[in-house]
Design brief:
seven-stranded mixed β-sheet
């Protein structure tokens, strides 16, 4: 009996959900020269499909996160998904005012099991883009008051 194998292209075709991108502050407006906190929420994904009459379970795990900040800067790839304030483990600082879009790309590794047998690794990764998050970087002025 020949058991099916699963490739990274198979995982890509089956589809994985995008991670959730969260920014702090979450108002969509940030100040230039102050760090924007970047956080990704993604968990392990399990899909069961039928291949050549065999039940195949595919398990994908997020391993890296890459933030494209819209101003030419890229943060990552990093294995750190970020953390809520005050941790600030993954950040970006805008230097110029403007409207930008931040895109999160999450890379997943995968493994598969045929008919309940042990899991086998799948070579390669699948990169999934999350929807872009708009952000407006604003310049401010310091005013001293008596």
């Amino acid at each position: 009996m020949i058991l099916p194998t699963v490739t990274i292209e198979d995982v890509r075709r089956i589809g994985l959900p995008p991670a959730t991108a969260t920014l702090q502050p979450d108002s969509g407006q940030v100040a230039i020269n102050l760090a924007v906190n970047l956080m990704a929420t993604a968990g392990q994904v399990t899909r069961t499909v039928d291949i050549l009459g065999f039940p195949v379970t595919i398990r994908a795990t997020p391993v890296t996160y890459r933030w494209t900040c819209g101003d030419g800067a890229v943060v990552g790839p990093t294995s750190d998904p970020g953390a809520p304030w005050p941790a600030l483990t993954v950040t970006h600082t805008y230097r110029q005012p403007g409207n930008y879009e931040i895109t999160l790309t999450t890379a997943y590794t995968a493994e598969y099991s045929v008919a309940g047998l042990g899991f086998q690794p799948i070579a390669g990764t699948v990169a999934i883009d999350s929807p872009a998050t708009p952000v407006t970087a604003l310049a401010g002025t310091t005013v001293l008051t008596p």
